[in-house]
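For reproducibility, we list the full input for the fe (ii) ion complex.
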Amino acid sequence: MGVEIAESPVTDETFESMAAFVYDYLQASVENEGDGGRMRWYPWHSAEYRFNHIMNVVELGNEIAESEGANEDVVRVAGLFHDIAKLEADQDVHAEAGARVAREYLESHGHFPGSFINQVCRAIEGHSHTGELEEVSLETQCVIEADLLDKVGANGITLMLLRMGYEARTHMDAAEMVQRVLQRGKEAKKRVQSDRAESMAHQRLKRVTWFRDWLVGEVSEMTVDEDELR
Ligand SMILES: [Fe+2]
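The corresponding predicted structure, in tokenized form, follows.
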């Protein structure tokens, strides 16, 4: 059995090539769909949106991994590949499918240690875990927390508001849509384990609350459920 080298196997250049591969893969998934492709016209079904979400997860995951002492390379690469199969596979199998694509890529590009590949694939596969976060590896936890956080901040609000147009809703529904992001944020805050993710969730929740109250305060006749307004 060989001794594996502990130094970082992922240079910035390596990471950039991986990111280009992920983007092309997403783009091809959308192009390969026929006209009957599921959710074809929804903004979150585009390669651009998905790639942007992925890069947000990479950034957030990095920040959490750094403060939690997790393996940053594992989190970075797992974050990058975590949703690679999202546009071609069903939701309940996209994590496993993504881990397979990542394994194939990592085994055929460069000389990544086997243990590194295994940790990355475990985190990708585990990112759809719905149970307690204590049950998964620290690196998987970082990816899950980053994934949750991206849905509850400015990006989450933007997507929800964009969605209104696709659903032919009026702009008067905006506060209600923001309220949904707030609800999702509260659930995310309860679920995250790390201090870093918790404080990020806290800050995002505050901002979403301000934005909702701002809408209700400035737009006459815009309301949300009174019980939920505090
Ligand atoms: Fe994701």
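The two ends are 61 Å apart (CA to CA). Residues 12-130 form a domain with the Hypothetical protein af1432 fold (CATH 1.10.3210.10). Both points were considered when choosing residues for closer inspection.
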